[in-house]
Amino acid sequence: MLxxxxxxxxxxxxxxxxTPAVNLLRDIPASxxxxxxxxxxxxxxxxxxxxxxxxxxxxxxxxxxxYHVTCCDIExxxxxxxxxxxxxxxxxxxxxxxVKSHSFWNxxxxxxxxxxxxxxxxxxxxxxxxxxxxxxTWLESSxxxxxxxxxxxxxxxxxxxxxxxxxxxxxxxxxIDVSIRDGMSKRVKEIGTSTFAxxxxxxxxxxxxxxxxxxxxxxxxxxTGVAGGNTADCTKLGxxxxxxxxxxxxxxxxxxxxxxxxxxxxxxxxxxxTFRRLYHCGEKDSLAA
Length: 289
Description:
This protein is 46% helix and 7% strand. The protein is mostly helical. The strands form two sheets. A two-stranded parallel ribbon has the order 1-2. The chain has a two-stranded antiparallel sheet with strand order 3-4.
């Protein structure tokens, strides 16, 4: 069947959302206690922040709802990332002291990661590769209970990206390592000490108070490769960091830096309450912490 062709003159990858998460069911009447399945279609879905925020918003309600969410995106690497995150969350041990769970945030939001984070990613994507040999093996795996694919072609496309997460060379001075770090350094020079209004929607009515702080965390993200330039995460990363394959691998030619220049992990969150508490306590410089 003939369909419109999308031809990007300049390729950008949007690995993380740049607007606050929304409740996809905000206009749906509250459940009356009856069993029902809500069908949600997310076109150009991007990352799963709104799906997770929607499920969080439904917590505590007396509901027997089931949710069936169908997602699509023009960039298969986005879907590959999303599946990694959702399956990591589902596979996590039910322990308050699970160390690996801290890697989930790092893998999804940090452009530079530690040895242990990289090992977690490679171990987990190895499981996905085993489960995704065919559409049938996927459906028979533990992941098939809650994540399905519309066809074999989609699964094969995502499998291609998972295999690269395992095999791509992100060692120091490798082609991808040099490309990503050079791209980050170039963006840092472009940013300089400028103030940006890109985080106003996340800060809500406290946007004026958060203007400089969000500009600082944005500059720090591109300088350090760590969300908000968080001091503790930067310390753990040390000098032995690796480029994150989940940011390096996309539809762009392998090794080409394609992460969009406006990317900032904090923009996907609702920060009004955070700013209110920080300013009430007088801790104006603690957002990234």
